Amino acid sequence: MAVRRRQVIGVTATVGALVAVGAAPAANADFDDLFQPFIDALSAVDPGIAADTDPGSALASLDSLFDGWYQNLVSTPIHDLDQWLFGAADASAAGSAVASGSAATAADTFTVPLQVNAVTEPVVNVSVGGGADAPVLVDTGAAGLVMPIWDVPWTGITGLPTSFNFGQFGNSLDYFYVQLPTTVTFTDAAGDHVTADSSVDAVLFAFPANFSLSGPWSIQDYLGPANVVGVLGVGPNALGPTPDSIPTAALPGDLGKGLLIDQANNELIFGANPLTGGTSIDGAPWTTLDLSINGGTHQAVSAVVDSGGVYGTMPSSVLNGIQPEQNGGLPDGTTIAVYQHGTSNLLYEYTVHNSNGAFNSPIVTSGDSMNTGNIPFAQQPIYISYSPAGTGQTIFGGSNAIQP
């Protein structure tokens, strides 16, 4: 059977992360960062244009001339236009995190409903720029909010674009997007809401990565059974597309510390980890895990703990001669056990089903990295911590700190 995979792959064919094809500037970067590629191109002729490395050279005058032209004719007018259209940054402005009500400024925890579509797809609703709620996939294997530009209300854009770039899903779908500053709002079951000042990667167009006429031509086609309009990437050390602009990390106060994905109870909980006694590993989603196949010796493997990875992937290098089936999955009855690296602490285990219409197998791939898929999230709550900055932590399991 054909298996649709939602894990995302970078330009270096690394499994399990969504990555932009190029380095995007910071989400709050100046609009003139958009002109950096042109500056870089000119720097190939005149290194002084990018930086005054040799102000005494004959080219220094060209450097000064370009800088003056750029500031007077490009940078200053653009910034003036930005201020005229959107006003100065103000935490009290409507739609900002501070203006979102007491739930945004006082609460140290906030819970929103979560549902699981198509067995492996955790989904929550978000409102972008004050628009209608839209379902998005909660994806620990990616960073940043990606959705079609027609789902982003222009009235909710809070500034000028901060970057244009390419991204890719699963080595199957390429897309070109513009990063737009906006607000991202989550609503709980009681109707209260909390808002982050963040950005959205608004997709302008998409096309099959392998140019197959039968391939997906839009995010909706690619995401298929998930029944969502976009992807909410929440992984602090995911490869992209915009790890510097993760809406859940931009939530106000303690709410931005991390999030608990509790699929069994259909909840996504923002704030400090409400559970105790879990097993913590460094990195989220990228980390090192120990893997045992069919009870064999533990093998260290680079891994992506990926809630949006469907049933995941398994590198052929760890299979010790086990051959995949025609559908790319492992043989029926194969057992997989995953441990905290360097310890005997079991994180999760399961038996592969790959016969009689049942399927929960990782897809065998080349390379040396593994994607967990959604299996561990289906078995236990998993907390994604944004500390330490840039790498984060993943905490498997745990129990309520206060028992009723």
Automatic annotation (TrEMBL):
It comes from the Bacteria. One of its GO terms (biological process) is proteolysis. PROSITE patterns: TAT. Residues 1-26 form the signal peptide. Keywords: Hydrolase, Protease, Signal. One of its GO terms (molecular function) is peptidase activity. Residues 111-394 form the PE cleavage protein A C-terminal domain. NCBIfam families: PE_process_PecA. This is PecA family PE domain-processing aspartic protease. It comes from [Mycobacterium] crassicus.
